[in-house]
Each structure stands twice: as C-alpha cells, then as structure tokens.
Amino acid sequence: MARVTQDRKSLRSPWRWKSRHTTDETAGHSTTRNADQLYAEYKEPLYAAPPLLQRMVDAGRLGRKTGSGFYAYA
Fold first, then answer.
1. Which of 46, 47, 51, 64 could lock onto 39 through a cystine, CB 3.0 to 4.6 A?
2. At what angle do helices 51-58 and 27-42 cross, to 10 degrees?
3. Torsional sign, CA 21, 25, 30, 33
4. Which of 55, 53, 59, 51 is nearest to 30 (CA)?
C-alpha cells in the first residue's frame, strides 16, 4: 500500500513530471517560439521575437547548455 501511495504522489508532483519529461529546449528556443506564436495570432509587432534573440538562436548561441549566449560560459 505504501508503494502505491508513493507512486501516486510522484505522478502528481510537477517537479517529478518535469524532470522525467525534460527536453533539450532552452530559454532562447522557448522564448522565440512563444513570441512567434503570439505574433502569428495577434499580428502585433510588439509580440515578435527580438531580432537579436532570433539571430542568437539561429547561430546556436543558446546559453549554458551550449556554452555561449549573451555570456561566455566556461
């Protein structure tokens, strides 16, 4: 019974769910994707992804996971 209860609790925990279902998406990818979706829906230039961020994502400068971004990560 304790195992069933523990399994049920772990399935409800958002932290456990996220750690089990993580993707390689980075903050730059998700930010540009979200901005693109907002821009496509509302056609407001305010919601478009900033050009600098889009260039950095296209160049693969994605932050800590890649070792480069706005800062040089060692």
1. 47
2. 130
3. negative
4. 53
How many Å apart are CA 70 and CA 74, to the nearest integer? Answer: 13
pLDDT along the chain (74 residues), means of 10: 53 51 66 93 94 92 86 82
42-72 per-residue burial string, b: 16 or more CB within 10 A, e: under 16: eeeeeeebeeebbebbeeebbbeeeeebeee
Tokens 């195992």, located at residue: 3
Token readout for 21 is: 């279902």
pTM over 0.70: no
What tens digit of pLDDT does each residue of 10-31 get? 555 555 545 444 445 677 788 8
Encoded tokens for 36: 């693109």
